[in-house]
Amino acid sequence: MSKAVTSLITQDDDALQVSAALLEVRDLLVEFHLRRGVVTAVSGLSYQLHRGETLAIVGESGSGKTVAAQAVLGILTTPPARVAGGEVLLNGQDLLLMSESERRRIRGEDIALIAQNASLNPVFSVGWQIAEPFRIHRGMSHRDSLIKAAELLDRVGIPAARSRLKDYPHEFSGGMRQRVSIAMAMALEPDVLIADEPTTALDVTIQAQIMALLQEMQGETGMGIVLITHDLGLVSEWADRLLVMYAGRECETGTVEEIFAQSAHPYTRGLIGSIPQARHKAGRLAPIPGSPPDLMQPAPGCSFAPRCAWAIDRCTAERPELKSLGSGRASSCHRTEKLLHVGEGEYQRHA
Amino acid sequence: MTLLNNDQENVENDSAEEAPRLSLRAAARSGPEPLRAADGLWRKVGHLLRRDVLGIAATTYLVLLLLTTVVGSFVLADSARNTNLHLRFVPPLSTQYGWEYVLGSDALGRSFLAQLTVAARTTLLISIGAVIAAAVVGALIGTVVGYARGRLDKVAMRIADVMLAFPSLLLALIVLYTLGAGLGSLILVLALARIAMYTRVARAETLAVRERVFIRASRAFGAGSLRIVCTQILPVIANPLVALATLEFALVMLAESALSFLGLGVHEPDVTWGGLIAEGRNYLQHAWWIALLPGLAITLTAIATNVLAELVRKAAESE
Ligand SMILES: Nc1ncnc2c1ncn2[C@@H]1O[C@H](COP(=O)(O)OP(=O)(O)OP(=O)(O)O)[C@@H](O)[C@H]1O
Ligand code: SF4
Ligand SMILES: [Mg+2]
User: Cβ contact (<8 Å) for B19 and A127?
Assistant: First the structure.
């Protein structure tokens, strides 16, 4: 979304990159300790998010996107979940090392979440809920917080905002409810906004409106957005950078242009290949044959190997490490170099 | 019916008070009135009532009972105290000695209608007080441990099991022996014996609610556990708790009557229905109404609240 940021990333000065990152996640490891065994939902996820930037995290259902986001905020239910390793640096401070009460002060204030699905309590009026962050963090009185809530509703484009404060979530349409969620998340103008599938279950026109709203808010506040989605069409249109996840691991990361022009990972290529011709038309991902692996007993080697048309013997024996390809781009595939020399058409033939 | 419910109301009333000042809520705005959890419940009960003769009868009885009790305990307070030895054991259903004696008189010649009414007040006060106390404390504990899980939860649930298995009469004897009989200790005993029920129900409901997205979202805004329990979970689980409290009312009232009958109840001059029965036991031969009428009142009230409780349960489950 901003050229300045992109050019910043492409600089080779590592120190500058680190200092500029709003949010940096390093080697995040999340496990679920269940009676049946241990599910490793996220293993070794790393990313950086810069001011004014939108980073899209894409992957099939169950790839660990939501779990990773919740781990970053520290709102996983423990037990069964356990953040078993990694760092989450928000403005240079490690959230994972903080006490719960310190983290609570940061949530909503510096980093906010738009949760997947309805995040509104059905028994409270919308105004009361939007005003919550002001009461929690600013100790505002009920009346003052409601005034703020009205301003926010107005800002996210709800007509006659004041008169709708007393309405209940079920009295709003899906798109409106999502606007309300955005209003809540934006209440205290956080530095980082994690939007977990903010437009799923909305029709295409409303999707575009919601994304435009998020971008507008980003323009005003310079926040960084982590956009979690299934929808590569959405990514191509609204994100700066892309991180592709598969079975809790990072497959590939880079700028949206680079990856769409020439992806360095077979899974990403499969995803891109599965978008309908016109890229911005929403297309649910699926058409890669096969299903994701069991996260409880990960096979050795590449977790995508059983479904990969490019797999070689090495793939089932040795897990591919995430290799940097320079300028913020990375891929975890044994055949990355090969892929980078093969164009789209040739890939199709190969597959 | 319970404080829980009132909590919820307060929150909402707050906004009802504040909002008009800043909002220009258009009166003409179409669409249904916003549903509050609690008022939605009572509206649903009203809906169910329309097709239910028994329900209407029960509700009518309860409303009449409440009205007579409230009005009667002012109007009849004096007659309940005035003894008249010329009018001992006046049989009921005659207005020969004035309307106050329509239900007869007792051994001291007091109007039995007045006695019943004053006893009703004490009975209802104790029963409602005990139900509310048990519901509030039990629900709070259940919600907190259900939200916190872990060891706290396990310990609390074991204690609840023990409390429910413990003979209530024994518990009553212990408490009343140590604290002495009286209104306060009676409420305490009756509440103590039933707290565990609310704890169980509240915990089970909380377990279902705590994984819902809006709770996560609330945590993502930095809300603390106490805040989440009080403002996000309790209002959502209020309906089944209200249903339980309605059902528990009859049980508590019967227990209170039993205790009073055994002479473990309130002292003179306070009296409850159970106490009247105990007194009437002495005159069963020639003044049957002294034992029968309070017995009838207890039975009718218990049946009526059970009928209402069933309706509330249906309404709470119909969400
Ligand atoms: N409460 C839980 N208990 C056990 N395992 C869980 C739990 N929550 C998530 N998981 C595991 O974590 C994995 C990742 O789940 P997650 O919700 O992050 O997927 P996702 O990428 O957000 O999928 P979707 O696109 O459907 O939202 C799941 O496959 C599941 O195995
Ligand atoms: S490592 Fe092998 S199996 Fe895995 S994506 Fe690359 S080519 Fe496919
Ligand atoms: Mg998800």
Answer: yes
Q: What is the count of residue pairs from A and B with beta carbons less than 8 Å apart?
A: 118
pLDDT band at residue B159, thresholds of 50, 70 and 90?
Answer: very high
B269 is a domain residue: yes
Provide CB contacts within 8 A for A36, sequence distance 6+. Answer: A296
- Distance in angstroms (rounded) separating the CA atoms of residues B253 and B244: 14
Q: What is the ipTM for the molecules in this complex?
A: 0.71
For residue B115, is it within any domain? Answer: yes
B/e letters for A208-223, b = 16+ CB within 10 Å, e = fewer, are bbbbebbeebbeeebb
- pLDDT of residue A79 exceeding 80, the answer is no
Q: Is residue B251 part of a domain?
A: yes
Ligand nearest to the CA of A58: 1
pLDDT in tens, A259-290: 888 888 888 888 887 766 544 444 444 467 77
Per the domain annotation, does A315 fall within a domain? no
B251 has pLDDT over 80: yes
Question: Residue B33: pLDDT band by 50, 70, 90 thresholds?
Answer: very low
Residue B195 lies in a domain: yes
Instruction: Assess whether A80 and A199 both reside in one domain.
Output: yes
Q: What is the pTM of this model?
A: 0.73
Name the residue of A251, A307, A312 whose CB sits within 8 Å of the most ligand 2 atoms, as the mutation to test its pocket: A312
Residue B272 or A341, more confident: B272
Task: Please report, as a single letter, which amino acid is at residue A215.
Answer: Q
- Asked if the C-beta of A181 comes within 8 angstroms of chain B's C-beta atoms, the answer is yes
The whole-number average pLDDT for the span A107-128 is: 84
A147 and A33 share a domain? no
Residue finishing a domain among A189, A206, A236: A189
- Residues of B within 8 A of A160 (CB-CB) are 26
Domain extent for B302 = 39-317
* DSSP 8-state class, residue B31: S
CA distance B65 to B226: 39
Please give the C-alpha separations between residue B76 and each of A340, B63, B69, in angstroms, as whole numbers: 96, 19, 10
CA separation (Å) from A233 to A60, A246, A267, B80? Answer: 14, 18, 16, 82
B-chain CB neighbours of A72 within 8 Å are: none
Among A164, A189, A214, the domain boundary falls at A189
Is residue A345, in this structure, part of any structural domain at all? Answer: no
Q: Residue A164's domain spans which residues?
A: 119-189
Residue A30 lies in a domain: yes
Report the CATH number at residue B89: 1.10.3720.10
Distance A32 CA to ligand 1 centre (A): 10
Structural domain includes residue A326: no
User: CB of A304 closer than 6 A to ligand 2?
Assistant: yes
Residue closest by Cα to atom 7 of ligand 1:
A32
